[in-house]
Write a structure and sequence with these properties.
nine-stranded mixed beta sheet, four-stranded antiparallel beta sheet, Rossmann fold, 7 helices, 217 residues, alpha/beta, elongated, 2 domains
Amino acid sequence: MRTLIVSGGRIDRDFALSFLKQQSFERIIGVDNGLRFLFDNRIEPTHVVGDFDTAAPELVDYYRCRKDIEVRTFNPVKDSTDTQIAIELALDLGSAEIAILGGTGSRIDHVLGNIQSMMLAKKKGVLCELLDEKNRIRLIDGETVILKEEQYGDYVSLIPLTTEVTGVDLIGFKYPLTDHTFTSTGSAGFGVSNEIVEEKALIRIKSGIFILIEARD
């Protein structure tokens, strides 16, 4: 089952609608102010979650009156972010893949928190992607193949999420590496803004987890 989470960050409408035309999801979870995008574009959520501190009250009331949509309300003083709660719900529903729109924007603290929350899916072996018009963000370990014709943008960046990422091989890239160790300090230059130069690129990791960012200008 594939689940879409629409959070309350910045959403480029043209990108989001184009993305949704190419995708199908069995579950759609609206998160707090992400309800505005869903409502304005006549996209029906199956679930709604959040503390609703940023959502328009009339929107929240509208969804609460809908008997066919499950609404879960949380206290603003809580231990989890709204997006984390949505990811936990998606996992409880048995999702095999999760895509998040509205998880990026001007609040870097929210973006970093959302990336960390993706570890909940990673630990369960569930693919989770955070997308906007410029970036596709995933957490990876083991081996990952990116086909050049399918890459999201021109640039591939690898940022250590764990303290160390060891035994890294980059094959098919402009800047290849063999058995390299990345650390959480002092190795950013090795991982930022690489480019794929072969038909496919391979990222091989012995231990640790990368934040994989496919980006375009």
